[in-house]
Amino acid sequence: xxxxxxxxxxxxxxxxxxxxxxxxxxxxxxxxxxxxxxxxxxxxxxxxxxxxxxxxxxxxxxxxxxxxxxxxxxxxxxxxxxxxxxxxxxxxxxxxxxxxxxxxxxxxxxxxxxxxxxxxxxxxxxxxxxxxxxxxxxxxxxxxxxxxxxxxxxxxxxxxxxxxxxxxxxxxxxxxxxxxxxxxxxxxxxxxxxxxxxxxxxxxxxxxxxxxxxxxxxxxxxxxxxxxxxxxxxxxxxxxxxxxxxxxxxxxxxxxxxxxxxxxxxxxxxxxxxxxxxxxxxxxxxxxxxxxxxxxxxxxxxxxxxxxxxxxxxxxxxxxxx
Amino acid sequence: xxxxxxxxxxxxxxxxxxxxxxxxxxxxxxxxxxxxxxxxxxxxxxxxxxxxxxxxxxxxxxxxxxxxxxxxxxxxxxxxxxxxxxxxxxxxxxxxxxxxxxxxxxxxxxxxxxxxxxxxxxxxxxxxxxxxxxxxxxxxxxxxxxxxxxxxxxxxxxxxxxxxxxxxxxxxxxxxxxxxxxxxxxxxxxxxxxxxxxxxxxxxxxxxxxxxxxxxxxxxxxxxxxxxxxxxxxxxxxxxxxxxxxxxxxxxxxxxxxxxxxxxxxxxxxxxxxxxxxxxxxxxxxxxxxxxxxxxxxxxxxxxxxxxxxxxxxxxxxxxxxxxxxxxxxxxxxxxxxxxxxxxxxxxxxxxxxxxxxxxxxxxxxxxxxxxxxxxxxxxxxxxxxxxxxxxxxxxxxxxxxxxxxxxxxxxxxxxxxxxxxxxxxxxxxxxxxxxxxxxxxxxxxxxxxxxxxxxxxxxxxxxxxxxxxxxxxxxxxxxxxxxxxxxxxxxxxxxxxxxxxxxxxxxxxxxxxxxxxxxxxxxxxxxxxxxxxxxxxxxxxxxxxxxxxxxxxxxxxxxxxxxxxxxxx
Lengths: 322, 570
Known about the structure:
The complex is a heterodimer.
Chain A: H1 2-8, E1 16-17, H2 40-48, H3 52-69, H4 107-143, H5 145-160, H6 163-171, H7 174-178, H8 182-209, H9 212-220, H10 224-260, H11 272-279, H12 287-315
Helix pairs in contact in A: 2-12, 3-4, 3-12, 4-5, 4-8, 4-10, 4-12, 5-8, 6-8, 8-10, 9-10, 10-11, 10-12, 11-12
Chain B: E1 19-30, E2 33-45, E3 50-54, H1 61-68, E4 76-85, E5 88-89, H2 95-101, E6 106-109, H3 123-133, H4 140-149, H5 155-158, H6 168-180, E7 186-190, H7 198-215, E8 218-223, H8 226-232, E9 235-240, E10 243-249, H9 250-255, H10 260-268, H11 270-283, H12 295-301, E11 305-319, E12 325-339, E13 343-347, H13 354-361, E14 369-374, E15 377-378, H14 384-393, E16 394-397, H15 411-421, H16 427-440, H17 457-469, E17 475-479, H18 487-504, E18 507-512, H19 515-521, E19 524-529, E20 532-538, H20 539-544, H21 549-557
Parallel strand pairs in B: 3-8, 3-9, 6-7, 7-8, 13-18, 13-19, 16-17, 17-18
Antiparallel strand pairs in B: 1-2, 1-4, 4-5, 9-10, 11-12, 11-14, 14-15, 19-20
């Protein structure tokens, strides 16, 4: 090889050396110590708080929470009492900015008071879906083999049921028919909603499972379950959080759908779904009665989906590699 | 332009450079503001000449080459200087002109053969695409000819295959075929072989050299390996932090480096280091420490095999249909002993089974047959409590510095975890121990509060070493522990490992594909090929008088090994 390069370089090649003071030599591999330490969550927060998408959706959700817990701050009109059939479908008037329903109830007050039921169904459903879906998905992904096969097949069965059809069947069971309540709606949603969460968790866990730090923990003597809980699941959380946020919105719509079909919340509970259902009879003549609860529903769902989008960008592990 | 290609060889006296880069500056627009990636870069390539740019990651070597072919990322721009191709400044040339030039004037061979071929198209189609884009004849026969010239046997049939049917070496040949298919006058090869095994690397580079010599193509070779650059190029350009710090004839540069950075690089290049360490040893310079154990440790170790591997085999069942499976023997009847306080290296190319051996020694994988005896006890007979104790005494360090630390744990929790798992000490004493460990691996104690993503590769690897040391183990299994690091950082970490060994009397089992590193750190070598142990012996014996053809081939393939270098006194 030596002879080759001597032979080939019949041209004169000059030997250039940069001035040393212009290219000072730094110590190899020094640590930057000036910046504050950044955990994944701190880093994500730093990215999030600059995103308009996040700021808008977070403010909207905050507002919704306040409305749900303190409806009294927004309206003094009771939603159900004082409904006078004389006011049926009347337009806006003083103290009643959105007008009246067919039954003569104040629409504004009903929309405000309906927030609580819709949000409760969404939040409680997501909590249960997280508990069941993440547990089963993590076990399936981490252990693989027959555990995975069984959980995946059971999930597939529920996954294959169209939501509305499945809900129709389940709600006709005597137990559900007789105990219509927030609880039964949540049960139906959780039953049909967990496989999606389990799938996402399983995928994320499989991705992390083979990382070197998991092997390192195992060879330190950490037990299998210990590694799963302490190393694997925390690192698989990002897609789970994103999905949970988006599903919150989706579950609120699901509740409205079921209530609209008359198989969701009982009529005694005020919810947007029930109001939309009641307003469909007068849709031709008075579409605005339906529009207000429907708009509230859309804004809520949009906020959660936007939040999920913003979280997805902020938690993207690719943007963290240096 | 295409017709002039043929006559370049004879036109050696033509003095106009093919590519000349003058005072080039490149900046990137990032979230944190404007970032200068390259400043004052200059470089000339004469027709038919091979020039190598050497530098560590982030030195701006790839960026400079990408600027020359007009493929800077969206957020990058040439902020100063000129790129003259045959006298024409192309640094701000419109995209239409660059498309004209790409392929038939400037060709490119990208780095990663695994991701640079489109998996949904046949190889032949991807070659044909290039030919057609440059207006060359593109009948199947032409495609086959181009692939054949790149050294793919049976190329007409190969052209009908998909990338996943090719091995890494074959893919790289296909990429070279694409890069050279339109007989460009300049070929940019960006780390063309760094993802390949050494023996394959050698074949590919030899072939590339022959082809470009025949075509009279000038080559701009980008590499992190100084030995490889010196061996393959007429001229070497060294880049450091975006600057060209030194440039000159390759041998001259190696023998007489002027800039302190080049001196540092020459001193730590593993592929060149074997000679240096030997010379240093003869002269009794303190770098003798690099060769690991001190006299006292060696004497104590003479009769003491801390680890004995006896006819170890591992057979994996590969599913090949419903209910059927074929056996794949990953490790085949491997036996070796590891003496206490010494370093034994297992060397082999990808697929040789070396990592499987490491997994079994760590007791993370059960052997199919054979025994692993650690300190007189067969590890397969241990019950779960004994395995827990065994874990304290044998610890791993892994290859990928980005994957071996949990990104959710800060450095303190990472290093404390082994102590907490084994219930050693209370909170205060554990913190004290973590601080000591950080001192041992030469990281500031303030690192404790940081997270892995804030550290460089070398620093992460130091943290991984600290974590492995936390339980005062006797044996450390290093699975490619330094392969992913830049040369200078690699030398630092190897020094650290050697230092820790002589201070703590550690035993290393060092799994690596890099024979050059073996020479720097190991006392004994086991060479593995396709699951079998083909040669064992002391490092000196194996390197000075290899017995097996495979070992000889491996040794020959170390880039730069054939360059006889006088000792460098730094």
